[in-house]
Amino acid sequence: MKKLLIALVAFTTLILSGCATVMSGTNQTLTFNSDVEGVNVYVDGALIGQTPVSASFKKNKAQTVMFTKEGYLTVTREITKSFDPVGVLNIFWDLSTTDFITGAVYEYAPNAIYVEMPPKQ
User: Fold this and answer.
1) Closest CA to 68 of 94, 32, 31, 41
2) C-alpha dihedral (47, 49, 52, 54), degrees to nearest 10
3) pLDDT band at 53 (very low <50, low <70, confident <90, very high)
4) Sequence spans of domains, the chain
5) Is the pLDDT of residue 21 over 50?
6) How far apart are CA 54 and CA 111, in angstroms?
7) What angle do CA 84, 102, 15 make, to 5 degrees?
8) How far apart (Å, rounded) are the C-alpha atoms in residues 36 and 31?
9) Could you give the strand order of the β-sheet that contains 112-115, starting from the edge strand earlier in sequence?
C-alpha cells in the first residue's frame, strides 16, 4: 500500500508540473529603457519605476507598458508574447494544460523594450 501511495504521489507530481513551467518558469524579467533618463514606466497601469528599470512579471499577465515624463508625449507599447517551444514537450504529460494555465508556455519577446520619447511641441 505504501509503494502504491508513493507511486501515485510521484505520478501526480509529474502530471501537475508542466515542462515549460519547470524549465522556463512562470515569471520573466523585462527591461525598460528610453533615450531620456527618469521616464516613469507603468505596466498595466501600475508604476514600476523610472528608466532604466527591470522587473519580473508573470508570463500570462503583463499586457501594456506606458512611458511618461513631463515635457514629453506619452508612449504606449503592447508587450508581445510568443510561444515558448519548451511547452511542446509537455504535450506528452498533460496536453500542455499546466503550462497554458500558468502562462509558462509563453515568453515575452523581446524581453527589453526601448523607446524614444518625443518632446511636446
Assistant:
1) 41
2) -80
3) very high
4) 2-115
5) no
6) 10
7) 90
8) 15
9) 53-58, 27-34, 112-115
